[in-house]
Amino acid sequence: MEQKHYNVLISGGGTGGHIFPALSIANALKRRDKLTNILFVGAEGRMEMERVPAAGYEIVGLPVSGFNRKNMLSNVKVLFKLMKSMMKAKRVLKDFKPDIAVGVGGYASGPMLKEAQKYAARYENEQGQQREGHAAEVSEAEQSEEKKEEPLPDA
After folding, report:
1. What is the dihedral of CA 128, 36, 86, 14, to 10 degrees?
2. Which tens digits make up the pLDDT trace of 25-49?
3. Of 135, 107, 133, whose CA–CA distance to 43 is shortest?
4. pLDDT class for 155, splitting at 50, 70, 90?
5. Measured between alpha carbons, how far is residue 120 from residues 78, 112, 147 in Å?
6. Do 106 and 14 form a contact (C-beta atoms < 8 A)?
7. Which of 19, 59, 64, 15 is nearest to 43 (CA)?
8. Smallest Cα–Cα separation from 66: which of 85, 39, 90?
9. If you write DSSP's letter for every residue of 124-148 in order, what string do you get?
10. Confidence class of residue 9 from pLDDT cuts 50, 70 and 90?
11. CA of residue 55 relative to chain centroid, distance
12. Which H helix or E strand runs over 115?
């Protein structure tokens, strides 16, 4: 029987606290199965857009950015970036066809995991820190039990 090789989408970044755990996940998956396809999704102009390719992985950037909590009027632009990011996330899912999507926190995790829910890909929100960020809280609140299936089988 032929072994299935998974397509794994890893989304997030912004800081080393998100990027390096994401790279660790990718490296562990590659050690288990060298033919696992991994695609990273990050925020355009952020640290992950340099660090991930330097580690040997492909990355797609979303035009997402964070909310300005001091100047709420400036968030109109943020909302347009969010809508554009959601549309791009849909295209990424359609083209890459992930078996599972993993969010590690950061601006790109929110729109990517939200679209992964609609796409019916299995998804996990992996936050190594004590308190999750806002995007993770929203994603977790909306995650339905039917999408959280048993863990992936051992390779």
Report:
1. 40
2. 999 999 999 999 999 999 999 999 9
3. 107
4. very low
5. 26, 12, 7
6. yes
7. 64
8. 85
9. EE---SSS--HHHHHHHHH--GGG-
10. very high
11. 17
12. helix 109-119
